[in-house]
Write a structure and sequence with these properties.
Oligomer: heterodimer
Strand order of the largest sheet of chain B: 1-2
Shape of chain A: flat
Strand content of chain B: under 5%
Order of helices and strands of chain A: HHHHHHHHHHHHHHH
Number of strands of chain B: 2
Strand content of chain A: under 5%
Radius of gyration of chain A: 25 Å
Distance between the termini of chain B: 54 Å
Helix content of chain B: over 70%
Distance between the termini of chain A: 51 Å
């Protein structure tokens, strides 16, 4: 009887102790979000007098910072809505183009045989070992020489050869039986049609994962945009660069900075909520981080 | 008859040639966009960077560039009079400190959390999401949030615990802020990999171990860790490489201070790049840092070969299952 009780207690513990520990950590992990959001809604008086409050005092919240940043007078100094638009533009176009290029290259490397193919592949593989920091300045010099610095074009084009994504897609394409594409070719389908109608649908999962990571990589890229946009006009910046400028020039306006940070987070958090399963799966199947 | 045959073989040959031409055109069509961008924006800058690193670069008069061989590298590594030697050594030392501090945290915390999540308590999926979420946010926003959290006058931490610490102006506090921020921001992917690895460990091993009296931490040390050794190595090396890339946190939160104690090599390279011209010294410095990272990558490559094979085997198994179901 007593043993039974002990066992039950132990079972309960085994279930709820992990929960309790995880809950504590989860709260710790959420506090920065909650406090930052709460503070961005506080009045100036509240920020000065109740800085430790997670949320504004009751009835004291103000959405003024958000409206001012998005369409009010603050938007003239820090055009956050414009930055948001630029970031979306860069992320979407570089994702679409880089995934298309990567998938096409992967198709060529899997379904065609040609001289030097092995050499080309090992060149791509070896290039993945080179850390991007080595290329940072020469790349910037080239972008500048092509007159692409100071605009989003200079951010999109240099990143279009996504070697890692190409390798991931290639390894998935390799699993597609060659008979399928050969049959399509015999039936008179052009290579483009075979690629688009047969190979892409079959490699869809890999392509989606690569696209998700390309999007996130572009959205969170920090070092290179900082260089390319270092002399750009204010309304040509992306969020990452704009926020950096804002954080060093907006003085004591804590609430304003946090509101801008939150505006920048909203699209990517929505994106994350919609895609979290695929993202986490992708980390495991491809090893991208 | 003979003529016909000759005609036929000629026709065949023509056909063959035509398909060969078509094939190569297709290869070109599919490979060219990727290859061109790769050549212009990867190979060329790489070669250019290495080339420049062997010269004493004169930005005002490019024809006066002087070939110095490994001179720049020598100066960076050994010439204590040279400012770039100081930049590099100081930056490497700071980065190395950060690696030493951050890597244990970024292994132990996500491992512990993944271990608990793997027990599948109530709401474990939500927990996993919460820990993963910060990783998708741009470092620019993360930097702002943590700067304000640790703000001396209006920050949460000082006011919550009644402190007056100037977090970003003193050591070791500046490192603590960077460390807390980095852990918060980047344990997510490590946690996901650990969780997947733990979920794969055979449950019967645990049962056998507990029957033999192996429980608690002992069980983790002797059973769990050895069974996820490969994934552990992957996480270890990618975390080390990631930590060598420390840039955004110290750039945004401490701005390299106090007294340059959180300056990193990447920050020096970035600062040099925004000045006009581009010297062989900076390029050589970037390559030195790159070589350190490449060494880490090579270690990772050799220590994880096994894992790659394992994954592909598993995938094949899954494909077979799918086929069987179909």
């Amino acid at each position: 009887m007593i043993g039974n009780k002990k066992l039950r207690v132990r079972k309960l513990c085994a279930k709820w102790i992990p929960f309790a520990v995880l809950l504590v950590f989860a709260i710790l992990w959420l506090i920065p979000f909650v406090w930052a959001f709460g503070t961005s809604l506080k009045t100036e008086y509240d920020i000065a007098n109740h800085p430790a409050g997670l949320l504004p005092s009751w009835g004291q919240w103000t959405f003024e910072r958000y409206s001012s940043l998005l369409w009010g007078e603050y938007a003239n100094i820090y055009p956050v809505a414009r930055w948001l638009l630029n970031s979306v533009l860069v992320a979407v176009s570089s994702t679409v183009l880089s995934v298309a290029f990567a998938a096409m290259a992967a198709y060529a490397l899997v379904f065609f045989d040609f001289k030097l193919k092995k050499l080309v592949i090992s060149l791509f593989l070896m290039s993945m070992m080179i850390p991007s920091i080595i290329n940072l300045i020469p790349l910037y010099v080239i972008v500048r020489d092509f007159k692409m610095s100071g605009s989003v074009v200079g951010l999109i084009i240099p990143g279009l050869a996504n070697v890692f994504g190409m390798i991931v897609i290639r390894s998935f394409f390799s699993g597609i039986p060659k008979e399928l594409t050969e049959a399509a070719t015999l039936d008179g389908a052009s290579q483009m049609r075979t690629f688009w109608k047969i190979v892409v649908p079959l490699g869809k999962n890999a392509i989606i994962v690569v696209a998700l990571f390309a999007f996130m990589g572009s959205w969170n890229d920090f070092l290179f945009p900082q260089l390319v946009l270092s002399n750009a006009d204010l309304d040509k910046l992306t969020l990452a660069v704009g926020l950096t400028i804002m954080s060093s020039t907006s003085g004591n306006d804590i609430g304003g900075r946090l509101a801008a940070a939150f505006i920048s987070m909203i699209p990517v958090l929505i994106f994350f909520i919609c895609t979290q399963n695929k993202l986490m799966e992708g980390i495991n199947t491809t090893g991208i981080k | 008859m003979d003529n016909d045959e000759i005609e036929l073989s000629k026709e065949l040959q023509r056909q063959k040639r035509k398909t060969a031409v078509m094939k190569h055109l297709n290869i070109l069509l599919f490979l060219a966009p990727f290859a061109i961008v790769f050549a212009i924006f990867f190979l060329y800058p790489l070669g250019y960077g290495i080339y420049v690193s062997f010269f004493k670069w004169n930005i005002y008069n490019p024809s006066a560039n002087e070939f110095v061989g490994f001179g720049n590298y020598f100066k960076i590594l050994f010439d204590s009079e040279n400012i770039y030697h100081e930049y590099f050594m100081q930056g490497m030392w700071n980065t190395f400190l950060f690696v030493l501090m951050s890597v244990p945290c970024m292994l132990i915390i996500p491992f512990a959390l993944a271990y608990l999540i793997n027990m599948k308590p109530f709401g474990w999926k939500v927990f996993k999401c919460i820990f993963f979420a910060p990783g998708v946010i741009s470092i620019a926003a993360v930097g702002i949030i943590f700067t304000e959290l640790f703000n001396t006058d209006y920050g949460l931490i000082n006011n919550l615990f009644n402190l007056q610490i100037q977090w970003t102006n003193q050591q070791p506090y500046a490192w603590i802020v960077i460390l807390v921020c980095s852990v918060w921001w980047s344990i997510g992917s490590n946690l996901v990999i650990f969780h997947a690895a733990l979920a794969e460990v055979d449950k019967t091993i645990y049962e056998a171990a507990s029957l033999d009296g192996c429980v608690g931490l002992k069980k983790i040390w002797y059973i769990t860790l050895p069974s996820i050794k490969n994934q552990f190595m992957v996480v270890l090396m990618t975390t080390v490489i990631g930590s060598f890339g420390l840039y955004g946190q110290s750039y945004l939160i401490t701005k390299g201070g106090p007294d340059d104690t959180t300056q990193t090599v990447i920050m020096r390279i970035q600062a040099a790049a925004s000045k006009p011209g581009f010297t062989g010294m900076v390029s050589a410095m970037a390559i030195c840092l790159g070589i350190v990272i490449i060494i880490c990558t090579v270690i990772q490559h050799f220590s994880t070969k096994e894992r790659g094979e394992k994954i592909s085997r598993r995938k094949r198994g899954k494909d077979k299952n799918a086929e069987a179901k179909a």
